[in-house]
Amino acid sequence: MSSTTLAADRPRPSTLGPMLVIGLLFFIFGFVTWLNGPLITFVKLAFQVADVYAFLVPFAFYISYLVFSLPASAVLRRTGMKKGMALGLFVMAAGALAFGQFATMRVFAGALSGLFVIGAGLSLLQTASNPYISILGPIESAAQRIAIMGICNKFAGILAPIVIGSLVLSGIGDIDAQVQAAPSPQAREALLNAFAAKIHAPYLGMAVLLVLLAVWILRSSLPEVRPASANSEQGIGHADTSIVGFPHLWLGVLCLFLYVGVEVMAGDAIGTYGTGFHLPLDQTKFFTAFTLGGMLLGYVAGLVLIPRFISQQRYLAVSAMLGVLFSLCAYLTQGYLSVGFVAALGFANAMMWPAIFPLAINGLGRHTEAGSALLIMGIAGGAVVPQLYAHLKEHFGFQVVFAALMVPCYLYILFYGLRGYRVGLRDGDGARAK
Which one, of 168, 134, 218, lies nearest residue 41 by Cα? Predict the structure, then answer.
């Protein structure tokens, strides 16, 4: 038996209730996360900024994971996972209030600060919830459980651009034309102020819902899971191995960094990619939903196939190969067809997080919280890769830049799925994997 699983004869309580609770959490932070794509379009008009500045939306959001993930692991050791999840929701609510208020006032730095705070709350929530669901059952089937969470997450992601598109971005093409044709600076500012004010009510409502959910989590019967006992260490040298002695974790951090970068490119940057072909704003505002639809299909496929027909690491390798193929096809085509291949990356990306995360924390034992925090820091890839895209496309063709960023990322993910996940671990006979 693998040392990463609980003993087969140990009684295990039902996981259905906890999975329902965590599934709701994944829905919430999926909805919040995938608002960033439409928000790029929103801030370009509301604040009258270029793409380079509009892409500070995902940068501010995702860079907070780099800043707060290690502190989040320290908080979780003191509070436990249940209270830590509730605290993360309270922080997200504060960030939602700040973003809604500053965006309505058209204070760009303040709006970005609100997104940074939302990301801080999510870093705490994800540092707790991802290892929680990974070790709630056998680590070998963790990808299947995370796939169920991913369905909740991506279903919310499909809804997010539709909701924000209907409530805030409705008629954005006409509003943009009116702003450009405004007869005076005062009339132009009045139009922009009225447009920006549409964001306030949705984010106020979101803040209220997050607070209510936090209170419910605190009062729920969600059990505590102790990572050190549920995810025992595999022998790598001596029993006192520090977290530095798990190379498969560090390779996994880089893998997750690159994965989140390509995920955000396919989901949040697809609208900007579409405008590169001069497609209408009233259509590009919904493109994120198509990518998330692809991801939802990918999660359903993973749920059916893993681990019954294919291992999570093998599925990761197949997904990476699809990512390379779809990226090259997007480069070689034009217009809606090219955008379609970018959306298809959602299918390729779907099972990457569910596979990478449990493979990277496999056998960490008492280091599980710290390893989880390092992996959550890797979410900063969602800040870095899109920023590179925004800057480079100012100097080179946007399709060339897109392919040049995406293909190398997928090739590294392919390496991790084939070999990197087992570097330093011991096989079943006690021999160190190469």
Answer: 168
List the beta bridge partners of residue 426. 432
CB of 102 closer than 8 Å to CB of 113? yes
Nearest C-alpha neighbor of 110 from the set 164, 68, 47, 191: 47
Q: CA nearest 150: which of 61, 30, 1? A: 30
DSSP 6-37: --TTS-----HHHHHHHHHHHHHHHHHHTTHH
CB of 213 within 8 A of CB of 27? no
Three-class DSSP category at 432? strand
3-state secondary structure at position 371: helix
Residue spans of alpha helices (H) in 106-198: 108-134, 142-167, 172-180, 185-197
Interval 232-286: pLDDT, tens: 545 444 444 678 888 999 999 999 999 999 999 999 999 999 999 999 988 888 8
CB neighbourhood size of 259 (10 A): 31
Query: Could you give the 3-state DSSP secondary structure of residue 175?
Result: helix
Residue 249 exposed, middle or buried by CB count within 10 Å (0-12, 13-18, 19+): buried
Instruction: Give the bridge partners for 432, in sequence order.
Output: 426
CA–CA dist 430, 314 (Å, integer): 22
DSSP per position, 49-106: --HHHHTHHHHHHHHHHHHHHHHHHHHHHHHHHHHHHHHHHHHHHHHHHHHHHHHHHT
DSSP assignment letter at 385: H
Residues 90-130 have pLDDT tens digits of: 999 999 999 999 999 999 999 999 999 999 999 888 877 77
Minimal CA–CA distance to 105: which of 168, 192, 163?
192
